[in-house]
Structures are given as structure tokens and as C-alpha cells.
Amino acid sequence: MEIGDIEYMVINEIFYSLQGEGQLAGVPSVFIRLAGCPLRCRWCDTPDAQSPSAGTKYAKAWLCEQINRYPAGHIVITGGEPMTQPKLPELLKAIRRPGVHITIETAGIMFVGGLPCELMSISPKLSNSTPAHATVHESIRLNVSVVKDLLKHYPCQLKFVVDSRGDLDEIVRFVGQLPKVRPESVFLMPQAAERKAYLDKSQWIADYCLNTGFSFGPRLQVMLWPGQRGK
Ligand code: SF4
Fold this sequence. Notes:
28% helix; TIM Barrel; 7 helices; single chain; alpha/beta; binds iron/sulfur cluster; 9-stranded mixed sheet
């Protein structure tokens, strides 16, 4: 139900799929995609969610009904960049229920405390994300202090999009600035929009993970449903 009163959330899309990435890859999950992101990653796979107005106002009660339609105990709040949404705490409060597992996906550019979630999935953006005509992007894409705060206050995983072998040193340098993180909680994911590129990059990334203890990060959405929205 789309409405115009104050009991609403602006949602880009809501869909049911498998979590494609990180430690919960393969787990059936309801995804709530919020609109708005100040970054402009070169390879962004959700450009339609970058504008803060790229959403529809939905009643909170309707949202909860939609979530309950699916046989999943996992909810993923994604974007866009959820942490920039003033109504994020309100949304989490509305959808919270006993036994549910909530993941928040963020680029780690803004800290918000006290959010009820089981997993903060942080994907800091490397230099490979910078578009040709970057304005704000380059100056805000990496924020060590914010990532440190997130690690301190939430159960976290780190995910990096890897495009070329040169990215690997950048990841080691970034992780080296953080308090001790378990290498297996750091996921390295191939940058790819289709299967061939995904598989080509997977081989050397997997070898690197075996040598370092970092985890290989699958992207099931690229393997199973390349280019499809709502997956
Ligand atoms: S942070 Fe995510 S939503 Fe924002 S531009 Fe980058 S890939 Fe797209």
C-alpha cells in the first residue's frame, strides 16, 4: 500500500532471494533496498537506487506484511547506502521480531550507533570503484575511523570487491589499519557483471585467499541471475 502520511518508509524495492555474498551466502532472505547513496561506484550494480528520491513511500504496516509473506528468518537491509537514511532506526524497529536475523549492508562511510542487527556487512570501496569523473566519491569512499567504530559496536564482516591483482595490496593496507580482524571474516569478491568475468577472476582470488587466510567471497547473484533486478 502506497501512502502519503508520516507512518511510511521510502523503499526502492523489496524482494525475496538468496543472500549472494559473505558468510550467509545461499541463505534465503528478504531484501529491503533503500534509496540514496552519495557514492558513485564505477561498477555499481544498483545505479537505480543511488538517488534519494528513487523510492516509493510505503506504510510500515504494509512492509511488515510483505516480509511475513516469505518463509525466511533473514532480512537484509541494503541500498543504496542504508546508513545515510534518517529513518533506518525506525525501519528496524518496525520489522524486528523474535528469531529474525537482520543484516545491514553498508559501504562503511557513516557510523550510526544502537541499530538492532545481527550482522553489519561492511564493504569499503577500493580505488577500483572510482568513476572517471569522480567528484565527491573519491574523498568519501574510504573512512577508516567509521569502519573502526562499526567493528567496535557491531558483529561485522568485511567484503571487498576485487577487480585486479593490484587491489590486493590495497586491501592488506586497509585491513592493517584496523584493530585485529579475523582474516576469515574478510571476504574478497570478484568484480564482475557476468559469469565469464566472475569465473576468470575467481581463480586467482581463490589462490590468494588460500595463501593469506582471507575468505573467498562468492557472488551468487552474478552466477545465478546475472544482470537481473530483484535477485
Ligand atoms: S556504495 Fe553501493 S549503492 Fe553506492 S554507488 Fe557504490 S555500489 Fe552503488
